[in-house]
Amino acid sequence: MGAQKKGATRVSEDADALARQPLQAVLLADSFATKFRPITLERPKVLLPIVNVPMINYTLAWLESAGVEEVFVFCCAHSRQVIDYLENSEWHSQPNFLVRTIQSHDSISAGDALRVIYERNVIQGDFVLISGDTVSNMSLTQALQEHKERKKKDNNAVMTMIIKRSKPSPITHQSRLGTDELFMAIDTSTKQLLYFEDKADHSKGTISLDKTLLADNPSIVLHNDKQDCYIDICAPEVLSLFTDNFDYQHLRRHFVKGLLLDDIMGYKIYTHEIHSSYAARIDNYRSYDIVSKDIIQRWTYPYVPDVKFCGNRSIKLERQGMYRASEIVQSCSSQIGPFTVIGYGTKIGNDTKVSNSVIGEGCTIGSNVSIEGSYIWDNVTIEDGCELRHVIVCDGVILKAGAVLKPGVVLSFKVVIGQGFVVPAYSKVSLLQQPTVEDSDEELEYADNSSGTVEISSIRGTADKLNGEMTPESSETHESELGSGGVGYIWSICEGGHEEEWRHSIAPIPADKLAEITQTIDDDHEFLTQDGTALPPSGELKSDSYSNLSEDDEMEDSKDDSAYFEKEVEATFLRAVHENVKVEHVILEVNSLRLSYNMTSSDCAGAIFYSMMKLSLETPHASASELLQNATNVISTWQRLLKSYLPETDEEIEVILKFEEMCLESGKEFSALFAQILHLLYDKDLIEEDAILTWANEKEGADESDKVFVKQAEKFIQWLREASEEED
Amino acid sequence: MPDTQALVNDFLNKLKKRKIEGSQATARQTAELLRSVISQQRVPYTNQAGALIDAMKVVGEQLIAANPVELAVGNIVRRVLHIIREEDLSLTTAAISGMNLSAVSDDDDDGDQDDHPVLSAAAVAAAARSTLRPPSLHTLLEDMPDSAAVPHTSSSGGDSEGKSKSADKSTITRKLKHDVIEAVNELIQDIITCHEQIAEQAVEHIHQNEVILTLGSSRTVLEFLCAAKEKKRSFRVFVAEGAPRYQGHLLAKELVARGLQTTLITDSAVFAMISRVNMVIVGAHVVMANGGVIAPVGLNMVALAAQKHAVPFVVLAGSHKLCPLYPHNPEVLLNELRSPSELLDFGEFSDCMDFGSGTGSPLLHVVNPTFDYVPPKLVSLFITDTGGHNPSYMYRLIADYYSADDLVIQRKPTTGN
Questions:
Q1: Which terminus of chain B faces fewer neighbouring Cβ atoms within 10 Å, N or C?
Q2: Cβ contacts of A331 within 8 Å, gap of 6 or more
Q3: Contact call for A508 and B357, based on CB within 8 A
Q4: Which regions of B109-181 does DSSP assign to beta strands (E)?
Q5: pLDDT (average), residues B9-19
Q6: Domains and CATH numbers, chain A
Q7: Is the model's pLDDT at B138 over the cut of 70?
Q8: Which of B6, B348, B362 has its CB closest to that of A95?
Q9: ipTM strictly over 0.95?
Q10: pLDDT per residue as tens digits for the range B182-201
Q11: Domain span at residue B85?
Q12: Which residues of A touch B17 (CB under 8 A)?
């Protein structure tokens, strides 16, 4: 194929575009996530090889064969590498398939990327939105046609999501690709997506749906066995929607959910289910493993190793799904098991066993090595007697004799593992040190990527230096954290991350882990059946918007909500205190919070009172009297704020209850001052005597432990009662 | 040149992505592509045939590598190479016999006078070689004196001739290219009409009240059966559905639409039904030089069943399906494994493929081969566009279509990727 680099004639696209709108695609060559760290610190994810071919080639090959004529590759992290790769690849010289790159350095999310693309004004019609790590062989024709027809009838049908059936594991509640179990409600006749939840709470085994959902739609089906393929056919409006809603970051979590919740604009999302074709996104190490296996098992046909779909080397498929490239030197006594891919020019020594693995090009593997379920990239040297099970080994890694990699290990580029060193399970080893800002928390994956990219560039320099220094060093016997002669750092597994590590790891979930989960599920069930009838904690009001799919779940949900709400109110209040915001403004802000969280004014009153008390508690004080003084100050300063949320006795009772709760839990110091503060509130006209008396009456029948504060305030209550009688 | 390159790349892409289905379509498109490559190819003054052959080989190699399973591509490339050689030879012989006076030559130099002895020597040598090899039956039957007289020169012979006849180059050049394109057009025509030519023979093979069994779907078979029907033959057809793609269903539909009595059976029922069948008629993917057939999956089973019950097993194949290679040839990829999704539903079986638990190794392996190899001894008769042939005769037929020099399309170490 040497000759074809000659300038292929390109049709002038302006005239063409006007004539019939070529199908365009936006390919996000950055996942805006950190799941593939530490590897992605050195190479962008889309260029990581899957079955010896960089991921982006699968995506581009699919787009090309699906009839897409123009692709905008959006590069962010390591954009130079992506652009260089594309310029040197054969994609650059395709006659009917234009690959253009859009570079951005400050995008930290898919939302930012789409906003940049919108500004460039390059998308003319419907386009395919895909990320550069998707492997698919589906035909777009039908989905595209359906999308266009819907669009013609209803201008609000802006997006068609491609989904595929795939059963999640009942034990771990994750799909086979390692992503969380996904719940979707789909209208059976129109295929409209009505509900989307990828972060359901599995501990209770319930989800909650909006009641109106059931009321408005004659038939909906709730699926938990659909896999989101991350292939979307979008109308151009999608881009402007992202621009209008500048806070949309994640395509699913913000955009899809946002559209589903927003009933003002009435935008609709539809689904298209594929049956016989394949589509999957490589989102984490687990999906890397699974998709590799799917490719080897030929689900992605024709994008399989023995078909040269993108200028890859020719590989022959042999019995039992064994793929071998040419020029392999293999010892007679070595055993190459089924479902194995061996790249060009690899050498394999005596008595070495390889099974279920992918070995890249130019690797040297010694004798008596055992490799199982592993992904070994190019130019890796594995000396005699090493043992690898379910690991990823990147380019240029050297494993000294007898090194052992436990399941789930990831070795980034050019790491050297010392002689006989055992790398513990799930550890990640890189030449680069772990970034100090710990951000592997999934929720933060968008927010922190900017820091990530900056880090990379700064680390880059040190890494190069490091390399230079390390090479001479490694020759002398130098005890590093990877055994004698080892080079690299083991990244510490972040706090709480260990729990998740096995979920997304390259290694299968260990049997004992599965047993453990099954056990906890069983326990939960017992717990639930015992506790199922327990009353909700006091003060939690059921909001109307929830239909009662499940009592427990709803409580859980509203509890969550109110906790957030309280936090927000507290933050608002503190800001008001520190910045001297006017009371009217605070009221306004709290009101808007109340609306957005769908809370009642008693919730507000409780929350504000709580924040006030907390503030006085946090103001330095030496004794109980000083604390009382603090409380008095705060209450008198902000009484107008609190008063505005106390229109009725009910709210006032709520405040008392809140205070009581606080005295028992977070602010024990107040317990001594309960009666005094109650009196204070009464004096300030914040709480009427009716409220106090009702509260006292309610408590009459309660347990002794509950009545501590009633007793404390007994005198005061007594006085109130007498006063009211006198009035009578 | 860029035009052809773009065309070639486009076609390569289609081949790689397995977008062209069926050997007839592939063969036709390959031939059309090669024709345009020839017409675009600038031919140098010397060694025109050599230049054309080289150009063909460069393109051909790419095409073959793009989809090694589709042997029709290689067949057509070799056919075109053969055509170039034949046309070159016929021009040369014409030059020897009628051109000593150099009447045709509108060139001015005298070099041709000196060259003629060399030229005739080479031609004589070639002719001498050809006498050692008996002309094929086919060429004897068909009156083609030019090509039959001096068949299959070696490439060295071609080279020396090329150099020698620099004299009358422009005429020959123009003539050669023209003739080659003419011949390729004929080839394309042959490919397009092969169905009709095969179908013409239908009445000779299908008799009244016979039961014919076929498997899967083949256009050749469909035309063949319909041709017999049109000639007022009444017969019945059993169609085995041809899992996993079930193209037999489509064939049955077509047959019924044309008024044929059709019975649809499962593949596994073939053995049970074969005793009632008078003849098995199937299509092929490729016919190898030894008379073996690469055919849609399931046909080996049918052939064995037919042999067991002594039912004639007839294979229909257009001449573009004749492959000059033997099945043991390392270049021949006998099979292609397609996606397992044709066999089973991914969603339904997704829990079997959850590698996240257990050992992490796949326990379920779905194998979906596209082709079967039917050995020659199981085939009773081949019907090509030139008539019916015995499997053992295939190599002779192939010798008419292909030149021995082209069996291995030369691989250049630098271009292979």
A1: N
A2: A348, A349, A350, A351, A352, A367
A3: yes
A4: none
A5: 80
A6: 20-291 (3.90.550.10), 314-436+452-504 (2.160.10.10), 552-727 (1.25.40.180)
A7: no
A8: B6
A9: no
A10: 899 999 998 999 999 999 99
A11: 2-194
A12: 61, 65, 302, 309
Q: How far is Cα B122 from Cα B164, in angstroms, rounded to an integer?
A: 9
Is residue A724's pLDDT more than 90? no
Q: Are strands B261-265 and A127-131 parallel, antiparallel or unpaired?
A: unpaired
| Beta-carbon separation of A298 and B337 below 8 A | yes
Reported as type and span, the H/E element at residue A16 is helix A13-20
Number of domains in chain B: 2
Residue from A10, A300, A307 whose CB has the most chain B CBs within 10 Å, to mutate: A307
Q: Do B417 and A7 touch (CB under 8 A)?
A: no
The residue with tokens 């009456």 is: A697
- Rounded CA-CA distance A674/A375 in Å is 65
Chain B hits for A290, CB-CB cut-off 8 Å, are: 353, 355-356
Q: Which of A5, A11, A63, A65 to mutate: most B Cβ within 10 Å?
A: A65
By the 10 Å C-beta count (0-12 exposed, 13-18 middle, 19+ buried), A684 is classed as middle
Query: What is the least distance, in Å, from the CA of A160 to any CA of chain B?
Result: 20
Residues B151, B280 within the same domain: no
- Do B231 and B154 lie in one domain? The reply is no
Is residue B396 a part of any domain in this protein? yes
Q: Pick from B163, B194, B225: which residue ends a domain?
A: B194
pLDDT at A448 over 60: no
- Give the A:B interface size as CB pairs under 8 Å: 149
Interchain CB contact of B413 with A (< 8 Å): no
User: CB A286 to CB B356 under 8 A?
Assistant: yes
Both B188 and B61 in a single domain? yes
pLDDT in tens, A416-442: 998 888 988 888 888 888 776 544 443
Q: How far is B163 from chain A (nearest CA, A)?
A: 27
Q: Is residue B230 in a domain?
A: yes
Give the β-pairing of A410-411 and A392-393.
parallel
Give the pair of three-digit tokens for residue A442: 């999934």
Confidence bin at B147 (pLDDT 50/70/90):
very low
Q: Which of A68, A117, A120, A73 is nearest to A94 (CA)?
A: A68
CB contact under 8 A, A166 and B359: no
For residues B40 and B15, membership in a common domain is answered with yes
Average pLDDT over residues A174-201: 84
B1, B4, B5: best mutation site toward chain A, by most A Cβ within 10 Å?
Answer: B5
Residue of B nearest to A165 (CA): B347
Which residue among B3, B5, B17 places its CB closest to the CB of A65? Answer: B17
CB A68 within 8 A of CB A25: yes
Is there a contact between A2 and B414 if contact means CB atoms under 8 Å apart? yes
pLDDT at residue A311 is higher than 60: yes
The answer to whether residues A337 and A356 touch, using CB atoms and an 8 Å cutoff, is: yes
Closest CA to A6 of B7, B65, B333: B7
Averaged pLDDT, A612-634: 80
Coil, helix or strand for A296?
helix
Q: Rounded distance, CA A148 to CA A635, Å?
A: 61
Distance CA A349, CA B250 (A): 52
**Taking a C-beta distance cutoff of 8 angstroms, is the pair A229, A143 a contact?**
no
Q: Tell me whether residues A96 and B65 touch, CB distance under 8 A.
A: no
Q: What is the average pLDDT value for chain B, to the nearest integer?
A: 79
A276 in Cβ contact with A268 (< 8 Å): no
Please identify among residues 204-263 of chain B the ones whose CB lies closer than 8 Å to any CB of chain A: none
> Is A8 in Cβ contact with B365 (below 8 Å)?
no
Tell which B residues from 347 to 406 touch A, by Cβ distance under 8 Å.
Answer: 347-348, 350-351, 353-362, 365-366, 368
Residue B181 lies in a domain: yes
∠B373-B377-B380 over CA atoms, to 5°? 100
- Whether residue B96 lies inside any domain: the answer is yes
Of B194, B223, B241, which residue constitutes the final position of a domain?
A: B194
